[in-house]
Model the fold of this input.
Amino acid sequence: MSTKQGFDLSFEASLENLHEVRDYIDQAGNSFGVDSDVLADLRLVVDEAVTNVILHGYQGRSGQVEVHMERDGDAVVILIRDQAGSFDASQVDTPHLDTALADRPFGGMGMFLIRKMTDEAEFRSLPGEGNELRIVKRQAFG
Amino acid sequence: MATLNIMVGQEQGNVAVTVLRVEGDIDAATHKALQDKGSEVIDEGTTNILLDLSDVHYMGSAGFRAIHAISNMLDHEETVGISKSKHLKLFNPSDEVSRVIKTLGFDSFLEIYRDRAEAINSF
Done:
């Protein structure tokens, strides 16, 4: 039986709050005893996901973002929820990492990092409106 | 909100090199300041930039977008192909930032230095 502990943060969808979100991930992760490299990955992944919600979900409109983080056995599970329009992750282009910068289109790097640096990253539409991203990072405790 | 400080310095190696020393977190809220500073020094005639990342504690994809844009501004008249940029190089990223550089494949197209004199003289 696993013991679950959780932290919750709710904030206005503004890029100015990204620093606070990263600090929250650090504080919650440190309180769980998350490995420092894993915590760096989680900080990056959550920053990228919240940035996507702000820029591509709310697109400048006001709205709330909720981040829930919990320990589940040897894993860290993070839920990121918004009330923005429907998001289809399959429509995001994969960056051309083997292509020279001069020839490489912009975009797609955030989603690539989210998928690359997690063990699971699942998007789903919430009933009514909004989206949820569920991130799982296993073997998070060294 | 995180703040980003960018100090501009000039160094003379084999050629003139503009050093952009960045302090702070480079995220979606701050990356434009880096991109704008790069554009500003290029407009003023800079052709070689060493980006000093020693004091960058966090850099997400927005930071790489800014670096990508600066690289394109500097290399726009050359056919870069698969070679590394001759005009934009990185200095002393943290281990955390280095891991993201590698994950995004930027190490294949930008030289990364740990020794400042070596970096300046590499241009």
The longest helix of chain B spans residues 61-74. Chain B touches chain A through 35 residues (CB under 8 Å). Chain B has one domain: 4-48+61-93+100-121.
